[in-house]
Amino acid sequence: MPKYQQALTRQLKEAAPVLSGYYIDSIYFGGGTPSYYGARRIASLFNTLKEHYNVLLDAEVTVEVNPDSISGKDLRLLNKEGVNRLSIGAQTADDGLAKNLGRRHSFAQVEQTVSKARKAGFENISLDVIYGLPSQTKEDWADTLNKIIVLRPEHVSCYGLRIEEDTPLYIFKDNPAIPTDDDQADMYLYTVDALRNVGYRQYEISNFSAPGKESRHNLKYWNREEYAGFGPTAHSYIGDLRYSYIKGVPAYIDALAGKRNILTSQDQISKSEQALEYLMLGLRTTRGITGDEYYNIYQSSWEPIEALLFDYEKSGFAHRVDGRWSLTSSGFLLSNQLIRKLLEAHTQQRFTVGMPWKKNEYAANQTS
Question: What is the pTM for the complete model shown?
Fold first, then answer.
């Protein structure tokens, strides 16, 4: 850890002159498990940022924590140093299900962590939970969600379980203990209704917040804003350039010592790719998308895309409010398929660059 701290601090200092023209309104210390890394090290990194970057006084500063690796003393230190938001990995209120996930904490520890955080001065807490766990019933999920609501976090992230290859949970692939797609859909729709009924606003497929407590940091990704990442495998998006750093802590430490190249990818994102990302990311949010915004990114016809959106509206998968198109709760369940068709419509329209909105008029003139 000391060697990693030294390398990460060095990278932050070396990158500062390049980012001197930016004002920082969001900082996110993400996992692994930053709380296990230690509050003092996190505070030191934050002080480096405050010293070398233009960090705004009202910046949102988030630290991810697990209930089994954070103390009241650490929480007080973080809050004193200026960390003002916590993201706590609760996952489930069922201790048996948590054990199956390999989690090392109980739900009682989640409750204790929230209580300690409030006493330490935190007024913005997010809780992460997962539905669709092995052997989890709809009643189990309702119980977890109700216990989360009782804690009154300002933000709730609800994720459906995805079983990935080369992970411990892969043993459950195709196992009848995994809730069916229909069961997971019921859990999701219950989540949307239950959280809305107690005052939470859904602003993205998996994210809900009290008014004004949306995650500023996550919104930057979904709104395609610029961000800079630091540390192994971190990604950045500056201007039209997206790049990422080397994987693995030892390799990262070697790279900062000049023993190897730190970059593993560097891509210039074309206007067409930016428009694809606008469609894909914008339709993850309840704010949605518009033809004008799409056209400002990439001068291509909006008509084929809007035609699909009208079809989605007829099926109850999309709606238009104040000129903005977004998916409904039912549409979010099918977002991968629905967005894929929109991306295909975009790709087929690339030949219209330079003739936006006038395709039909142009064709008519040529015919006459």
Answer: 0.90
